[in-house]
Amino acid sequence: MGGKYRITGNKYPRMRGPRRRGRLVVVVVASVAVLGVGGWGTLQLIDVFTGGGGKASAAGNGTDCAPRTKASASPAAKALPEPRTITVNVFNATTRGGLAKKTADELKKRGFKIGDVGNATKQYDKKVKGTGVLLGPATALDTSLPVLGTQLPDAERRTEAARKDAAVDLVIGDGFKELAKRPDADRALTKLARPEPAPTPKKGC
Fold first, then answer.
1. Burial level of 119, CB count in 10 A (0-12/13-18/19+)?
2. 161-172 b/e with 16+ CB inside 10 Å = b?
3. If you average pLDDT over residues 25-48, what whole number do you get?
4. Which of 113, 122, 116 is nearest to 93 (CA)?
5. Number of other residues whose CB lies within 10 A of the CB of residue 156
6. Mind listing the pLDDT tens digit for each residue in 89-118?
7. Contact by Cβ (8 Å): 92, 172
8. What number of other Cβ atoms are within 10 A of residue 85's Cβ?
9. Number of alpha carbons in the 13 Å side-chain half-sphere of residue 92
10. I want to staple 107 with a disulfide (CB 3.0 to 4.6 A). Which of 26, 98, 112, 141 is the partner?
C-alpha cells in the first residue's frame, strides 16, 4: 500500500462501498424517470382516444346519443260507420239450430240493425269451418266489415264485387261459439276508430 495506510486489527477497510451506492442511486433515479415519462405518455394517449377531455365520462359530457322513442302525432280518427247505421244479415251455416236468431238478437242489443235471419245458402251451408264469414260489397271492406269484425274477430272477411246493397252478412261457421264479449268488442271498436299513435325512433344527437 506504499506505506500510506496502516492496517490494524483483523479487518480490511472497504474501499469501494461508496461507489456501489452511487451506482444504485443512479439506477433508481433513472428508473423513476422512465416510469414518469411512460406514465405521462400513457395519459397523453388516453386523452387522444377520449377526445382530450380529462373530465369525460360515459355520459358523454351530458349528451345522450342513444336512440329515443317519441310518439308520433295521433292519426286522425277514421270515418267509420256507427253500428246503428249498419244492417247485418245473419245466416247459420251449421247443423246447430237457433244460432242465427240468437246471434242476431245479441247484435241488435249492441246497436246493429238486423236484416234477414235464417239458414245460409248452398254456397256456404255446412261449408264454413271457421267461426264465420263476413260478406259485403267492395265499399264495406274498410267501413262496415271492420266494425262488424269487432264482434267476431276471427271471422273471415270477403267482398262481392257484384253486390249492390250496403248490408253485410254474418255467416256462422262450425267453429262459432259466441260473439266476442261486449266489453272486449267495445274496446276493439274504440281502438279501431281512434288508433294509438305509433312510437317513432328519435336520435339524441
1. middle
2. eebeeebbbbbb
3. 55
4. 122
5. 15
6. 999 999 999 999 999 999 999 999 999 999
7. yes
8. 14
9. 16
10. 112
**Cell numbers 359530457: residue:** 61
CA distances from 89 to 23, 75, 122, 133, 192 (A): 110, 32, 16, 12, 22
Write the single-letter amino acid at 87.
T
All three cell numbers of 155: 271471422
**Cα angle at 65 between 61 and 69, to 5 degrees?**
135
d(CA 44, CA 41): 5
Cell of 178: 259466441
- For residue 157, give Cα distances in angstroms to 2, 150, 151, 170, 185: 126, 12, 13, 9, 17
Report d(CA 72, CA 197) in Å as an integer. Answer: 6
Average pLDDT, stretch 52-56? 48
Cell of 108: 241488435
Place of cell 257484384: 162
